[in-house]
Amino acid sequence: xxxxxxxxxxxxxxxxxYRKPAQDPARRLAFDALRAVDERDAYANLVLxxxxxxxxxxVDFTRRDxxxxxxxxxxxxxxxxxxxxxxxxxxxxxxxxIDPPVLDVISLGAHQLLATRIPTHAAVSATVDxxxxxxxxxxxxxxxxxxxxxxxxxxxxxxxxxxxxxxxxAEDHLGVLFSHPRWVVSALWDALGVWQPQAxxxxxxxxxxxxxxxxxAVTLVARPGRSTVxxxxxxxxxxATEPGRWSPxxxxxxxxGDPADLRAVRENRAGVQDEGSQLVxxxxxxxxxxxxxxxxxxxxxxxxxxKAALLGALAAERGAALVASEAQLHRARLVARALEGxxxxxxxxxxxxxxxxxxxxxxxxxxxxxxxxGLGALRRRPEARWRRRPADVANFAPLQRGLLxxxxxxTRPGGVVGYATCxxxxxxxxxxxxxxxxxxxxxxxxDARETLPGVPDLGDGPDIQLWPHLHGTDAMYLALLRKRR
Length: 485
Prior knowledge:
- This protein is an alpha/beta fold.
- It has 20 helices and 12 strands.
- The chain has helices at residues 25-40, 44-55, 63-78, 80-88, 100-115, 120-134, 137-150, 155-162, 170-178, 182-195, 202-212, 229-236, 263-266, 275-286, 306-317, 329-339, 384-387, 390-410, 430-437, 468-471; strands spanning 219-222, 241-243, 250-253, 270-272, 296-299, 321-326, 346-350, 363-369, 411-421, 443-446, 464-465, 477-483.
- The strands form 2 sheets. Strands 5, 6, 7, 8, 9, 10, 11 and 12 form an 8-stranded mixed sheet that branches. It has a 4-stranded antiparallel sheet with strand order 2-3-1-4.
- Helix 16 links the parallel strand 6 and strand 7.
- Residues 1-13 have low confidence and may be disordered.
């Protein structure tokens, strides 16, 4: 029997007319940002502002569009691990077999369905329109089918289905629930167990991982001698701000506050800086010296310049000079820009801290905030959790040890060294300091907790570890060391 020809199609089954996808600048911008992160290893906090500035030249692109695009980018990146597990349950192939741009579109749709108040039909329709714009009609149909499956459950229900039981694999369970790679969960748990041994169970780990997924408040620093907390709050309306929890120089902005609106920021008298970074600089400045002067300070890893600007202001209050050294030329330029207008003397140089451009014993205070995995700043750089690998931690080790040794050598007898990282990973923090001090009799620990009075939950000392869930800061580590006389 021959198959019926086209003439046998029922008259009611008319082909739908082509509908041109609606223009959606916010979703398109979010897609472009995700592609930059995936293709070029860009950081969202660098690529997104540039895309927003370009988009804002269009009069039809509103602040609401900018806020929505920002939420899509950061929300999708933070929850990528959870969304990948959910998407994998809705497709018939490994995720590695799905083209990355297609997976990015699906992830953007999953975030709208599972983590926003956008109605289901609107989230699916708008994301399929995006797929038709940036992909082709075939992948758009695939996107539509996957999103309709995802829309059948809410986030909690999906996570109950795709996460392994806690009793069988606690780290993988928490990794899926809170969208962290398993190895990162393990490393954070190990560190929390060392620093907070009485509070390192499941509840504490869930609080820490959840804090990594929180959107951090924008925090300003009023550089002493150049601006004040009171000035910043008055300029922004006090109801839209609050003082920092721990740093006397910090102001936290309410959601939606724009630092660029502040004259003090435009004039470089204030800046954007996490409160944890402020505390590191303040602790070094507060550490007691033995004998000698307090006239020349060194920031040995100064880029991009936030800590250097605060250190320069603190040094200027005491009549001290700051030398800010950075190995990379483009970052040294950022440091010079951050220090512009500093009231005290300062010098910015491009130099490798492991091959110092200064004589031994030249400085009274030395800070080295060393390159690291960045696991302490996952709130701000959520893509770092997917980009980093355990081998990266080991690869940083020689540089971290070399920089600390050079910092000790650069310090005069009686002077102080601060070793800092934006990572709580034990292999980048206490282990580095212990290794460098092994066999050295010319250095002693200082109890760093005494330089931060009023800040709780710092551990048993003498070094300190800050935590997002306990302090509301990045997970900064600091060890203070004194050169023996």
